[in-house]
Amino acid sequence: MPALDANSLRRAYTDFFVDRGHTHVPSSPLVLTHPTAPMFVNAGMNQFVEYLNGELPPPYKRATTVQKCVRLSGKHNDIAELGKTRRHLSFFEMLGNWSFGDYYKEEAIEMAWELCTEVAGFDGDRLWVTVHETDDEAEEIWRDKIGVPAGRIQRLGKENFWEMGDTGPCGPSSEIHFDAGPEWGEPGGPAAGSGDRYVEFWNLVFMDRYRNPDGSFLPLPSKNVDTGGGLERWLMLLEGVPTVYDTDAVRPLVATAERISSKRYRAGDERVDTALRVIGDHARTMTFIVNDGIAPSNEGRGYVLRGVIRRAVRLAYQLGVERPIGSELVMATVEHMGEAYPELKTNADVIADVVDREEARFRTTLRTGSQLLEEELEKGRVSGATAFALHDTFGFPVEITEEIAEERGAPLDRAGFDKLMAEQKQRSRDAGKTVAIAASGIEGYRQLVDEFGTTEFTGYTEYESAAKVVAILPGEDEGKVEVFLDRTPFYAEGGGQVGDTGTITSSTGTLRVLDTTAAVPGLHRHLAVVEEGSVAAGQEVTASIDAHRRDAIRRNHTGTHLLHWALREVLGPHVKQQGSLVGPDYLRFDFSHHSAVTPEQLAEVERLANERILDNEPVRAYETAMAQAKEAGAIMFFGDKYGEVVRVVEAGHKSMELCGGTHVNALGMIGPIKVTQETSIGANLRRIFALTGEGTLDWIAERESLLTTTAALAKAAKPEEVPGAVERLLQRQKGLEDEVKSLRAQLASGEGKELAASAVDGVVVARRDGLAGEQLKDLAVSVRNEPGIRAVMLAGTPDGERVALAAAVAKDSGLVAGELVVEAAKITGGGGNAKAPDVAVAGGKDVSKIDDALAAVRATLGR
Ligand code: SER
Fold first, then answer.
1. Residue (of 420, 393, 535, 400) closest to 477 by Cα position
2. What pLDDT, on the 0 to 100 scale, is given for residue 430?
């Protein structure tokens, strides 16, 4: 029988139990909501807790699953074993089957044995079983019904009692182990030998009781079976490979780690191998955790995820990888596991983005943090203060620092670290600035929405609103807080429009809001600093936006709509918005169009928009059904997503768009529009910048001042006289240039006479530095014009860097000026037109060759 691979094993297991009356239930997400649920699902039974406890009647008596599991917290945390043993992973898939008060020990054991030996292909002679020390019944079944020799059945204590957590269903278990052979350790069976030799791969739990938090047990309403086998362990044994990392389920991701780090797996360096394994393992773990909606944060699940991403990044860094690796790890996982878990494909970009951002955050301090840690490690111990600095300033989760310290045999002062952490928490409590919610990150925001609803936006009509503080959370940047109100006039950045700024004031203090964004859709997050006193959750506050800034923003926003309309009028209806930025100082608008917009077209666009403004029609905004808006011809931006109810903004009677932004009440409020720039930003993509209101007025004032300065420089009494004055200046300049030219000619002819006097047989070959090509040519011509001169060749460097060459020959000389000059130019690394008859110029590069060049021409001319 050929060994099963991951896909066929999942299928074979599921089919086997479905054939025996089990309902195939999909894997649950990694995060469950039952009060006793572990942080991350750690076993297939988690999603069935209500049925096992008898809280809900099970919809089926028998079930089978392939369940995503993460073991990085609580009772089942395998982080210390990761990459070091042959069989531990932080993310794995658990094969399982259940009986909810239906079959019990006998049938469970019989089916398990049949599947192992007849379907999966395990050699029954190499299997060992363990039972709980009290479980005579299970032992008898194995020995008498199945026929496992008594010598391969062993009894164990707590190892054969399975509990989900400190609270929850549990029971005695019976485990099946595979003897991998003497090369993996001492004999003696699972009770005596190592877990690497006697590999436990299937756990059958006879779940009959409930553990209370105080450790006492209650009987469960029914006797259940809960089995679980790690898919990757089965594969390791069936494929006969040394570790779970070498199976077809995980090896491709270790290969990704190899590619990223340019290090080879199993090339003799155990530390490299361990790092590559952990990176491969973490690729799967981070991908699946983010896929189930968790974002990195400083608490709870988000913190575990943060640790996973940062550990992978740090391990890669240790292997010499300085570039970002997150999205590569995610994409490799998606590619490898997307068939079994299609939702990974749908979410791939989002997952990669979340991981990338976390990585980027960590990378800013990774190098300095690593250095600090290295210095400390050299001292042989890691102090609490350093561990705290690494955590607080450099973003090293203390668990990671601890792992590194341990690996290097240096003790870490965890108590010292914990003390500093506690002090920091106390400080922020004392400041009275924050209120704790159980979770952080996206989850925390969702929790806020669940508890308090979304934020009521009052800012379409109010600049100042009375509100209540729902929560204040620490911001990502030190010293900043995130403030959530029940209602707010602060617009949250969106649809191209920037977020509002302003103040939030309570009876005890003032916060200055630096920006407003949506934490999750509908939840306005005010990013603020404490300006005075303190503000706390639950307080009544006055939330005021910076009205002057907002007015400028709304002028630009309505202005954007008018320009969009005018561009379509002038260029055609193919013009579509591709993006925009609406801030207080200017607006930027990107649109599709095949060629540059001409100055005339731009002027026309500007004119049309300003015409609308002068018409001063009202701006109306209202909500309506999507279908209706479409029918009325509202413009919907490419890429935007709209719900059923949409907000329509009519900027006068010509422009109608779907938009959630804030706008002026009547077009006249926009003030003058000025398009200041038009550029290309890609194939068929154009971008314009424009100003409105005060922006345009400032622009005009600035232009005016430029003109005034110019007038003063041009000695014009008034700006109107500038053109006349500049024209006069230009004329004068022309007169002066002519004069300079004729003076130069005179000078040249003087020098020409001198040079001509040095002629031998009517030939002058000379060096002249400091003259530009044109001047050198004039000089050559004036030499040639002297009586008796046949040929002139001049060369020199005008500036010490380049070479200028000029030749002139008399008409009846039989010589070609171009040939002379090109011959010389070539020697100095340049070239010119060899055909030029009487006068020729050329350039060269190598100044050191000028004299050689002249010598060559001299030889040619027989001198
Ligand atoms: N819950 C048990 C385990 O995780 C059997 O599924 O091992």
1. 393
2. 53
Half-sphere exposure of 44 (CA within 13 A, CB side): 26
Q: What is the pLDDT of residue 846?
A: 93
Report how far residue 561's alpha carbon sits from residue 568's, in angstroms, rounded to the nearest whole number.
Answer: 11
| 403 Cα: distance to centroid of ligand 1 (angstroms) | 27
Q: How many residues does the chain have?
A: 863
What gap in Å lies between CA 79 and CA 2, rounded to an integer? Answer: 33
Nearest CA to ligand 1 atom 4: 43
Residue 138's CB is within 10 A of a number of other CB atoms, namely 25
**Ligand 1 centroid to residue 131 C-alpha, Å:** 14
Residues 6+ apart with CB under 8 A from 606: 566, 673, 674, 675
CA distance 330 to 358: 13
The answer to whether the CB of 45 is under 6 A from ligand 1 is: yes
For the chain, counts of helices (H) and of strands (E): 23, 31
Residues 6+ apart with CB under 8 A from 363: 313, 324
Tell me, using a 6 A CB cutoff, whether residue 169 lines ligand 1. Answer: no
Report residue 540 CA to chain centroid gap.
Answer: 38
Q: Which among 75, 134, 131, 126 is positioned nearest to 108, based on CA atoms? A: 131
**CA 222: distance to chain centroid?**
50
- Cα 33 to middle of ligand 1, angstroms: 19
Q: Which tokens is 56 given?
A: 């809900």
Residue type at 242 in one-letter notation? P
Q: Is 330 in contact with 287 (CB distance < 8 Å)?
A: yes
For residue 478, what are the contacts with CB-CB under 8 A and spacing of at least 6? none
Cα 505 from chain centre: 35
CA–CA dist 543, 660 (Å, integer) = 20
Residues of the chain with pLDDT under 50: 431-436, 438, 637-642
Q: Which residue has the tokens 């706390």?
A: 536
**Contacts with 550 (C-beta within 8 Å, 6 or more apart), sequence order:** 459, 463, 491, 500, 584, 662
Closest CA to 151 of 109, 111, 179, 117: 179
Cβ proximity of 485 and 470 under 8 Å: yes
Per-residue pLDDT of 691-729, as tens digits, reads 999 999 999 999 999 999 999 998 888 888 999 999 999
Crossing angle between the packed helical segments 547-571 and 599-615, to the nearest 10 degrees: 120
Among protein residues, the one whose CA lies closest to atom 2 of ligand 1? 228
Of 467, 448, 469, 451, the closest CA to residue 459 belongs to 467
CA atoms of 257 and 263, how far apart (whole Å): 8
CB 470 within 8 A of CB 448: yes
All residues at 6 or more sequence positions from 406 whose CB lies less than 8 Å from its CB, including other chains: 412
- What is the Å distance from ligand 1's center to 120 Cα? 19
Comparing CA positions, the residue from 45, 162, 171 lying closest to residue 105 is 171
* Residue to mutate, 28, 42, 94, ligand 1, most ligand atoms under 8 Å from C-beta: 94
Secondary structure percentages of the chain, helix, strand, coil, to 5: 45, 25, 30
Q: Which residue has the tokens 């690494």?
A: 390
DSSP 8-state symbol, 61: S
- Residue 75 amino acid letter: K
| 162 Cβ inside 6 Å of ligand 1 | yes
Tokens of 177: 């182990």
Of 108, 205, 225, nearest to 162 by C-alpha is 205
Encoding tokens for residue 339? 């068939």
DSSP string, 794-845: EEE-SSSSSEEEEEEE-GGG---HHHHHHHHHHHTT-EE-TT--SEEEEEES
Distance CA(180)–CA(202), nearest Å, equals 15
Find where tokens 């950045």 sit: 493
- Residue 48: CB within 6 Å of ligand 1? no
Determine if ligand 1 sits within 6 Å of the CB of residue 652.
no
Q: Which uninterrupted H or E stretch holds 522?
A: none
